[in-house]
Design a protein that fits this description.
The protein is mostly helical. It has twelve helices and four strands. The strands form two sheets. A two-stranded antiparallel sheet has the order 1-2. A hairpin with a 2-residue loop joins strand 1 and strand 2. Helix 8 packs antiparallel against helix 10.
């Protein structure tokens, strides 16, 4: 049983959730920060002390909030630094985490299922779980269906905001549609980019759905962040696809490396990453709560992307995996940390 679970986690490359999840959480923090700006909470009184008359001219001071007096115990709430700057609902946080895990797991399982015959013919992917016999097509099908159902069910945590529920099936269809893109278009890399770009946009809608429905322009900060994610993902996916240049050309599959050659593909990937930096630099102009720390983070991302491109050359793709996973994981997690600290201190 444990071995099967490990196979499923490896099948969906659970660790690669690091690419999209930090941007969903960052967009959620941006949305919670915006709500706190629009509807500031009253000054926080950690003890919520009230003074009451108890007769004969005497008074007594005690914690008034009934939620803080349980069975006679006086519970003093904890106020973490900056907590007054975010209006966080635990249901929304749990909903975002569950939706991200279920949606990505469903899409990855579907991809492995659809590509199992192509994977078996490609020397680089022949060892994947279905071609290697570690998991059956039936097991992966059941897993994909279960994760899809979990994704739709998780959107109920955002009620009374119904937009996530209404959009769940179209979003899932788009995510799974990526698995067929390479069969008919070289723009499959950008399809994947848009798929991951949905994560910050969806998180924003999940939190500010009612405001977005009334004022669609409210979604603009999430769209700018999502566009940056789309360009970033498309760029590193183009780099990653260079490994399969020979096989894709022989199998008549579509990709940017097949269309432009490896050298041309690497130049286009660099152009995508230039767009990423431009959009990340634009974000504070659209979303003013970000300050100087965000600019420092953008500069660091630019340096990391330059380093990523220095790792690969048309005649040397040996370090593609380092460029693909290590550098990009640092970028996504680093931006989440920088963005969070900036919003707390701003």
């Amino acid at each position: 049983m444990l071995q099967t679970i490990r196979h499923f986690l490896s099948l969906i490359r659970f660790s690669h959730t690091l690419f999209a999840l930090p941007f969903a959480l960052l967009a959620a923090l941006m949305a919670w920060r915006m709500q706190a700006i629009e509807n500031p909470a009253p000054a926080f009184d950690p003890y919520n002390l009230k003074t009451y008359s108890i007769g004969a001219g005497s008074t007594q001071t005690f914690i008034h909030d009934p939620y803080l007096n349980i069975l006679g115990f006086q519970i003093i709430p904890f106020d973490w630094p900056g907590s007054s700057k975010f209006q966080i609902r635990w249901q929304e946080l749990v909903g975002i985490l569950l939706c991200m895990v279920f949606a990505r797991s469903a899409a990855m399982a579907f991809n492995r299922l659809v590509d199992r015959k192509l994977d078996a013919l490609n020397p680089r992917t022949a060892g994947r779980h279905i071609p290697a016999g570690l998991l059956s097509a039936g097991q992966v099908t059941f897993f994909a269906i279960a994760c899809s159902a979990g994704f739709v069910a998780s959107t109920l945590l955002f009620l009374p905001n119904r937009l996530p529920l209404y959009l769940a099936v179209p979003v899932l269809a788009f995510l799974c549609g990526y698995s067929y893109a390479k069969r008919f278009t070289s723009l499959a890399h950008f399809w994947l980019g848009v798929a991951l770009a949905m994560s910050p946009i969806a998180a924003w809608i999940a939190i500010r759905g009612e405001t977005v429905a009334r004022h669609p322009a409210d979604l603009l900060p999430a769209i700018v962040l999502g566009a940056a994610v789309a360009a970033w993902v498309a760029g590193f996916d183009i780099i990653y696809a260079c490994q399969d240049f020979a096989y894709d050309r022989e199998a008549k599959l579509h990709s940017i490396p097949v269309r432009l050659g490896v050298a041309g593909a690497l130049r286009l990937a660099a152009g995508c990453h230039f767009v990423t930096i431009a959009l990340l630099a634009l974000l504070p102009l659209i979303y003013p709560p970000f300050g100087g720390l965000w600019w420092a983070g953008v500069a660091s991302v630019a340096a990391l992307l330059v380093y990523e491109h220095a790792l690969v050359r048309p005649d040397d793709l040996a370090r593609v995996n380092t460029a693909f996973f290590n550098v990009n994981a640092i970028i996504s997690l680093g931006l989440l940390v920088v963005g969070t600290v900036d919003l707390v201190l701003s």
